[in-house]
Amino acid sequence: MDSSLTNLDSPEAQAILGKLLLESGGDHSQYGRGEPTEKEFLSGGVPCTKFVPLPGFCVKLKTSRNEKVFMNICQSENVPPAKDLTDDELLEILKGDDLTKFRVPMSIGEPHAEIDKAGVGCTVYDVVVHPAFLQKIQSSELFRTFFLTITSEGIEEKFKTELKRDWIILKNRKCVGYLQEQIVRLKSKPLIVDMDEGYQLPSQEETAWKRPGLIQEVQAAEMEKKRAPEPKFSIVQEPAEGYPEYLVAEIHLPLVKTAQTLTLDVGEDRILLETRSNVYHLDIYLPYNIVQEDAGAQFDRCTKILTLTMPVQPNR
To answer: In which band, very low, low, confident or very high, does the pLDDT at 100 lie, cut at 50, 70 and 90?
Structure first.
């Protein structure tokens, strides 16, 4: 093996990293480096904390095309704890028809390119859970199998990939590469929680029948004022069928460098996003009313994606 590849700062290593996961963008060599800032403000007065999660254990698996993939199972108090169940209670839920009775709060980070100990390029996902749940999946084979299954499904749904289920837990390695920084809101929960499964909702134009007048009026009124492009975005719901519990919006902001330049207002049924220097402007209505005070957001400086997690008001 070329020893230069074991040094991530070497030109050879950086060349490999630069070729991997080009769609995710950013400088992969900087993941996890530097001192994290304790507080930031994602949206006028809404405090957020930026942190690097602590390592837990590492899982090795492959895609359907035999490409090597690692999952860094990490821990942080910033992620809400899961409901404390026994093995028997989980078995009863798994035997039933409603699997939504038990949900695992987690944050699935964007894929980042790393080099494994053999000097081979690989894809790595950081999955963050609460420390109490990390202990649970380390001590219970049932919970561990359940967790790795839903996490694999979550990665498949979110990143449109296919993973084999013959995973290997590495005994002597807690993580591969640098753990990515996360940004979460400090107030109220749920914090930033990635969906286990998602469904692509219709576009804004396709859902215009829900509020045709409002949408058309806002677009016409804002057209001259904003003079800024609307960023690419998508919205998914969870669970995929029926009335959702959450809406998750991903907004692509390739020209934004830091969350401090963003102004985000989440209304009961509306998202309004503005940027410093009028780089982007987004004003859309949502197909469901949400719980505003429990909405959370994170901005990934590498992928330049702003992710909003919005609990939906109960269907009455």
So the answer is: low
Task: Give the model's pLDDT for residue 316.
Answer: 66
Instruction: Report which DSSP code applies to 159.
Output: H
Please give the Cα distance from 273 to 302 (Å, whole number). 19
Number of helical H runs and strand E runs in the chain: 5, 17
**This prediction's pTM:** 0.50
What's the pLDDT score for residue 291?
Answer: 87
| 277 touches 284 (CB < 8 A) | no
Find the radius of gyration of the CA atoms of the chain.
20
Give strand ranges (E) for the chain: 40-43, 46-51, 54-62, 68-75, 107-108, 112-115, 121-129, 168-170, 182-185, 199-200, 233-238, 246-252, 262-266, 270-275, 281-285, 296-300, 305-311
- What is the percent of the chain with per-residue pLDDT over 70, rounded to a whole number? 69
Question: Which residues have a Cβ under 8 Å from the Cβ of 41 and sit 6 or more positions away?
Answer: 47, 48, 259, 260
| Residue 10, φ and ψ in degrees, nearest 5 | -70, 150
CA atoms within 13 A on the CB side of 208: 10
Partnered with residue 20 across adjacent β-strands are: none
Which region among 211-215, 243-247, 267-271, 310-314 has the lowest average model confidence (pLDDT)? 211-215
